[in-house]
C-alpha cells in the first residue's frame, strides 16, 4: 500500500559562552538537491547561538516522501522502533507539499488540496545545539490540539501557557500538567471542515512541548528537546480516523490481545496470603459476578524479588493449586514483574544475570545500583545482547507450565524505570567494590565501542543546561530513575533512551512469552510506554485515586491512547487505586469500565478492599455491566482486530464521526466505542443526572431501542439509577451481540448472536463481525470477516467464513420502524457462509 501521507523531515547532524535564545539567527539552506521523492540540503549556522549548549554548525535536511538514512546523531535504534519501509511516494502524490525559505531556514507543510498551511516554522529561527533543539510552528487561532500523552489534562489541550513534558516517570496520583509514565510525541490538529492532520516527532529525547500565543496573539506549538534529531512525520488525514491509521502504520500496528483479556479482571496490592486470593475468587463466584482473570501483585513474591514465591504466605504448591482451579473454571491468572533485580548473592536470577553481564553499569564498570521494592537492585540493560536470552530463560523457568506458575499473561510495572533512591548517591563506589569482590563477580568493562547514532560526544549527560519540567522532586532528569549518564551496551546513553526503557521491557517480556508458547498470542500489560508500545503491550492509566475526578479523567485518557497513540487495549484501575472507594462511585465506575477495552478493578495495599461484591449496589451494577459487556465482546473484539490490521481506533471522540460539528471538539465525558455505540456516563459526583450531547443524526437508546433525533444539542436524563449508564446506537450501524452472557468469556463464545440493525437517515446500515479462535498468534485462514448490510429492505451477511463454528445468528432485529417499533426476522442462520433476507 502506498503511504502518500508520510513526509518525513529529518534534520540531522552531518558533523559538526552561552548566548540568548532571542539572539539566535538560525540556519541557511545551501546545496539544495531536489528530486521527485526527496529533497536534500545542507543547513549552515548563520551566527552563533549557544543558548544552552554548543551549536551544531552544519545540519543535513532530508525531506523524504521516502528513503533510508545513516547519520551520527542519536536516533532510536531500528530494532526498538522499526521505521516504515520505503514507499517511493512523490511530492505530487503525497497530498502534502513541503516548501522552505533558504535564509534563515524555515519551512512549511501545506495540504495540497486546500492550500491550508499545516506547519510553518517561519516565526522563529531553528536552534540546533548538542543539547537543545528548538523548533516552533504556527497554529491557527483557537486551535484544536490533542494527543502528546501521557497526561491527565484536558483531552483538547489548553492552548496558552501550557507545557507538555515528555519524560517517563513514576507518577502516583497522576498529577495534572505533569509528565506521567509514557511519552507519545504525536499531536492531532483538527481544523473542522478543512480536515485533520497529525504531526509525529520520532524522538525519545526528553522535551517540553509548549502551547502558547505570542504577545500579538499568534498561537504556536514549540518543541524544546534536549537532544536527538528532528525526525517528523506529517500525517495528512484528512479524516480524523485516517490520521489514527496513518500514525499506527508509522509506529506499528497494535498487537491483538487474546479474547479472554476482554473479560473482567480483579487485582489488589495487599492480598497478604494466597488464601485471600482464593477467597476473592470464591466470593466473586458466590456473588454471581463473572470473574475472568485474577492477578498477583508483588505480594506473591519472596522479599519482593521477581521469579520467587513467598515461602510462607504464597507457597508454590498453593499458587499452583490456585492457578489450576482458575484454569479448570475457564479463568485466567496474570502476575507482576518489576525491572529492579535484587542485588543479593543468594538470588539466582541476579547471579545468572550478573554472569551474563546483562545489567546497566556505573562508570567504574560495576553494576549500577538503586533502590526498588526488594531493596538494593540493579536494572537490566535491554540493549545488551544477552539480556533477552536471560529474561526469556528466567520467565521460562519460573512460569514453566508444569513445574512453575502457569500464568496466562504478565504485567510489567515500575519500568520508567522507577528508582526509590532519592539522593544522587545511595551507594558509595567503595561498597560496590567490596560487595562484588566478595561474591566473585568482577568489575567488567563497559560497552562503549563507537557505533552509529550513539549521540554527539562531550555532552553533559547528567545536568543538561536546558531543564525540562520533570515533575519529580529536584526536577533533574535522573531524579528517581536511572542515571542518564549511564552508557547502554550498544554505546548509546540513558540520556537519549530513557523514554524507551519501559517499552523495551514490555517487548522483551512479550518475546519471552512467545518463546514459552510460540503459538499463543501473548498478553503483556505495561505501565511505561513510548510511541508504538501498542505493538507489544496493553496499558493501564497508572496509580489514580478513588475519587470522582479520576473517574472522569479515565475518559480523556482512553480517548488519547485509543484514538491517538495506537494503543487500543487500555483502561483504568476501576474504582480507583489509592484511597477508600465510595459505594456510589464504585458502582458508576463498574459500569464506566465495562465500556472501556481493559477492565480491571485494582487497589493499593493502603486502600481498603473494593471488590465489587463488597456492596450490594456495586454487585448489581457490576453484574449488569459485565452481562452487557460480555454480550458485546465480539463487537469489541472486532474493533480490536481492526485496530491490529489498519489502526482503526476502538474508542474515539465524537468529532471523529462529526468532524464539522464544533460542539463536539471539546467533549471529554462521552466516547464512541467502535463506530456504533456512544457512551455517556453520569459524570457528576454522586449524581443521578447526566447532560450529554447528541450530534445531528439518528440515534437509538441502546437499552430500549427507542429512536431519538440527536438534533445537535444537549440532552438530559434524570433518575439514572446506580446500575444504569446511558448508551446510544448511532444510526447507520449494525451490531452483532451474543444473545446471552456467561460466567467466563469461553462460555460466551458458545452463545448465539442477535444482530441489531440501526438504520441511519438514508435508511441503510452496515456493520462487521470478526471471528477466530481467540488465542492463536497466527490464525491463518481460520477466521471469518463478515460484513452485514441493510439497504432498507434487504439484509445480507457476506464476507469470508474461514472460522469453523456452530454458533448461529438467532435473529436479526431492525430498529426504527414507523412509530418506533422493532421488526424481528427469526433465523437461525449458520455462520459458515453468507445469508440474507428481504422484508
Ligand atoms: C562562532 O564562534 C566561534 C568562536 O567562538 C567562531 O570560531 C565561529 O566562527 C562562530 N561561528 C559563526 C557562524 O559565527
Ligand atoms: C522504490 O524504488 C526503488 C528504486 O527504484 C525500487 O527498488 C523499490 O522496489 C521501490 N519500492 C517500492 C515499495 O515500490
Ligand atoms: C469473602 O466472603 C466472606 C464471607 O462473606 C468474608 O468473610 C470474607 O472476608 C471475604 N473475603 C475476601 C477476601 O473478600
Ligand atoms: C455461572 O455462575 C453461577 C453463579 O456463580 C452458577 O450458579 C452457574 O451454575 C454458573 N453457570 C455455568 C454454566 O457455569
Ligand atoms: C506473611 O503474611 C503475614 C501477614 O499476613 C506477615 O506478617 C508475614 O511477614 C508474612 N510472611 C512472609 C514470610 O512474608
Ligand atoms: C554520572 O554522573 C554522576 C554525577 O556527576 C556521577 O556520580 C556518576 O559517576 C556518573 N555516572 C556515570 C555512569 O558516568
Ligand atoms: C486451521 O484449522 C485447521 C483445522 O483445524 C488446521 O488444520 C489448520 O492448521 C489451521 N490453520 C492455521 C493457519 O492455524
Ligand atoms: C456476497 O457478495 C457477492 C460478491 O459481491 C455477491 O455475489 C453475493 O450476492 C453476496 N451475497 C449476499 C448474500 O449478499
Ligand atoms: C489529575 C489530577 O487532578 N491530579 C491530582 C491528584 O491529586 C494530587 C494530590 O492531591 C494532585 O497533586 C494532582 O494534581
From TrEMBL:
Record's catalysed reaction(s): Hydrolysis of terminal, non-reducing (1->4)-linked alpha-D-glucose residues with release of alpha-D-glucose
Annotated ranges, domain Glycoside hydrolase family 31 N-terminal: 79-205
PROSITE patterns the record matches: GLYCOSYL_HYDROL_F31_1
EC number in record: 3.2.1.20
Class of the enzyme per the UniProt entry, highest EC level: hydrolase
Record GO terms (molecular function): alpha-1,4-glucosidase activity; carbohydrate binding
Domain Glycosyl hydrolase family 31 C-terminal, first and last residues per copy: 647-735
UniProt cross-references to CDD domains, sorted A to Z: GH31_MGAM_SI_GAA (cd06602), GH31_N (cd14752)
Alphabetical keyword list: Glycosidase, Hydrolase, Signal
Signal peptide per UniProt: 1-19
Record InterPro entries: Gal_mutarotase_sf_dom (IPR011013), GH (IPR017853), Glyco_hydro_31_AS (IPR030458), Glyco_hydro_31_C (IPR048395), Glyco_hydro_31_N_dom (IPR025887), Glyco_hydro_31_TIM (IPR000322), Glyco_hydro_b (IPR013780)
Positions of the Glycoside hydrolase family 31 TIM barrel domain: 254-638
GO BP of this protein: carbohydrate metabolic process
Recorded family membership: Belongs to the glycosyl hydrolase 31 family.
UniProt protein name: alpha-glucosidase
Amino acid at each position: 500500500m502506498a503511504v502518500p501521507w508520510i513526509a518525513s523531515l529529518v534534520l540531522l547532524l552531518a558533523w559538526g559562552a552561552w548566548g540568548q535564545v532571542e539572539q539566535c539567527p538560525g540556519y541557511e539552506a545551501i546545496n539544495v538537491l531536489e528530486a521527485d521523492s526527496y529533497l536534500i540540503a545542507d543547513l549552515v549556522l548563520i551566527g552563533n547561538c549557544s543558548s544552552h549548549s554548543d551549536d551544531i554548525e552544519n545540519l543535513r535536511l532530508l525531506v523524504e516522501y521516502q528513503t533510508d538514512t545513516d547519520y551520527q546523531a542519536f536516533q532510536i535504534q531500528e530494532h526498538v522502533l522499526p521505521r516504515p519501509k520505503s514507499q517511493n511516494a512523490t511530492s505530487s502524490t503525497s497530498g502534502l507539499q513541503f516548501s522552505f525559505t533558504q535564509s534563515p531556514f524555515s519551512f512549511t507543510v501545506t495540504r495540497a488540496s486546500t492550500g491550508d498551511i499545516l506547519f510553518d516554522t517561519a516565526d522563529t529561527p531553528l536552534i540546533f545545539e548538542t543539547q537543545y533543539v528548538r523548533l516552533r510552528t504556527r497554529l491557527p487561532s483557537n486551535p484544536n490540539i490533542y494527543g502528546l500523552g501521557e497526561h491527565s489534562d484536558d483531552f483538547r489541550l489548553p492552548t496558552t501557557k501550557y507545557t507538555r513534558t515528555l519524560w517517563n516517570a513514576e507518577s502516583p496520583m497522576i498529577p495534572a500538567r505533569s509528565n506521567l509514565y509514557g511519552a507519545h510525541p504525536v499531536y492531532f490538529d483538527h481544523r473542522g471542515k478543512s480536515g485533520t492532520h497529525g504531526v509525529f516527532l520520532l524522538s525519545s529525547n526528553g522535551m517540553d512541548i509548549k502551547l502558547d500565543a505570542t504577545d500579538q496573539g499568534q498561537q504556536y506549538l514549540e518543541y524544546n528537546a534536549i537532544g536527538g534529531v528532528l525526525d517528523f512525520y506529517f500525517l495528512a488525514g484528512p479524516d480524523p480516523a485516517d490520521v489514527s491509521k496513518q500514525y499506527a502504520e508509522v509506529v506499528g500496528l497494535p498487537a491483538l490481545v487474546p479474547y479472554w483479556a476482554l473479560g473482567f479482571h480483579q487485582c489488589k496490592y495487599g492480598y497478604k496470603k494466597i488464601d485471600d486470593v482464593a477467597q476473592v475468587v470464591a466470593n466473586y463466584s458466590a456473588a454471581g459476578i463473572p470473574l475472568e482473570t485474577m492477578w498477583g501483585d508483588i505480594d506473591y513474591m519472596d522479599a519482593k524479588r521477581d521469579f520467587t514465591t513467598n515461602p510462607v504466605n504464597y507457597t508454590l504448591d498453593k499458587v499452583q493449586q490456585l492457578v489450576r482451579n482458575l484454569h479448570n473454571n475457564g479463568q485466567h491468572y496474570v502476575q507482576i514483574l518489576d525491572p529492579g533485580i535484587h542485588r543479593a548473592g543468594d538470588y539466582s536470577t541476579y547471579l545468572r544475570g550478573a554472569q551474563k553481564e546483562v545489567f546497566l553499569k556505573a562508570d567504574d564498570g560495576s553494576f549500577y545500583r538503586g533502590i526498588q521494592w526488594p531493596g538494593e537492585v540493579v536494572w537490566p540493560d535491554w540493549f545488551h545482547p544477552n539480556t533477552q536470552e536471560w529474561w526469556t530463560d528466567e520467565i521460562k523457568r519460573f512460569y514453566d507450565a508444569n513445574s512453575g506458575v502457569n500464568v496466562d499473561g504478565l504485567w510489567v510495572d515500575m519500568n520508567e524505570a522507577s528508582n526509590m533512591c532519592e539522593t544522587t548517591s545511595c551507594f558509595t563506589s567503595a561498597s560496590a567494590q567490596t560487595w562484588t569482590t566478595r561474591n566473585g563477580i568482577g568489575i567488567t568493562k563497559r560497552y562503549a565501542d563507537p557505533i552509529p547514532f550513539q549521540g554527539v560526544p562531550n555532552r553533559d549527560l547528567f545536568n543538561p543546561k536546558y531543564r525540562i519540567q520533570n515533575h519529580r522532586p529536584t526536577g533533574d532528569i535522573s531524579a528517581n530513575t536511572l542515571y542518564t549518564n549511564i552508557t547502554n551496551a550498544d554505546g548509546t546513553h540513558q540520556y537519549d533512551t530513557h523514554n524507551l526503557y519501559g517499552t523495551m521491557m514490555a517487548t522483551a517480556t512479550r518475546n519471552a512469552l512467545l518463546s514459552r508458547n510460540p503459538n499463543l498470542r501473548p498478553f503483556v500489560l505495561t505501565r511505561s510506554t513510548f510511541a508504538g508500545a501498542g505493538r507489544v503491550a496493553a496499558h493501564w492509566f497508572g496509580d489514580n485515586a478513588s475519587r470522582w475526578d479520576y473517574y472522569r479523567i479515565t475518559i480523556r485518557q482512553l480517548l488519547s491512547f485509543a484514538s491517538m497513540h495506537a494503543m487500543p487495549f487500555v483502561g483504568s484501575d476501576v474504582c480507583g487505586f489509592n484511597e477508600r472507594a465510595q459505594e456510589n462511585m464504585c458502582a458508576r465506575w463498574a459500569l464506566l469500565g465495562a465500556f472501556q477495552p481493559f477492565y480491571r478493578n485494582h487497589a493499593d495495599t493502603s486502600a481498603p478492599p473494593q471488590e465489587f461484591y463488597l456492596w450490594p449496589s456495586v454487585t448489581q451494577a457490576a453484574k449488569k455491566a459485565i452481562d452487557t459487556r460480555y454480550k458485546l465482546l465480539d463487537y469489541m473484539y472486532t474493533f480490536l482486530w481492526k485496530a491490529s490490521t489498519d489502526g482503526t481506533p476502538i474508542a474515539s471522540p465524537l468529532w471523529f464521526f462529526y468532524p464539522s460539528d464544533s460542539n463536539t471538539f471539546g467533549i471529554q465525558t462521552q466516547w464512541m466505542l467502535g463506530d456504533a455505540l456512544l457512551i455517556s456516563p453520569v459524570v457528576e459526583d454522586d449524581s443521578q443526572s447526566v447532560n450529554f450531547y447528541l450530534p445531528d443524526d439518528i440515534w437509538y437508546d441502546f437499552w430500549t431501542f427507542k429512536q431519538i433525533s440527536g438534533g445537535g444539542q444537549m440532552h438530559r436524563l434524570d433518575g439514572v439509577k446506580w446500575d444504569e449508564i446511558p448508551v446510544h446506537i448511532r444510526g447507520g450501524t449494525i451490531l452483532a451481540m451474543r444473545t446471552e452472557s456467561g460466567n467466563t468469556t469461553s462460555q460466551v463464545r458458545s452463545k448465539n448472536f442477535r444482530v441489531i440493525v440501526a438504520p441511519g437517515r438514508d435508511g441503510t446500515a452496515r456493520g462487521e463481525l470478526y471471528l477466530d479462535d481467540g488465542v492463536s498468534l497466527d490464525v491463518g485462514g481460520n477466521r471469518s470477516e463478515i460484513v452485514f448490510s441493510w439497504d432498507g429492505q434487504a439484509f445480507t451477511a457476506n464476507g469470508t467464513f474461514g472460522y469453523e463454528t456452530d454458533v448461529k445468528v438467532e435473529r436479526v432485529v431492525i430498529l426504527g420502524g414507523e412509530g418506533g417499533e422493532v421488526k424481528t426476522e427469526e433465523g437461525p442462520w449458520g455462520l459458515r457462509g453468507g445469508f440474507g433476507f428481504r422484508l
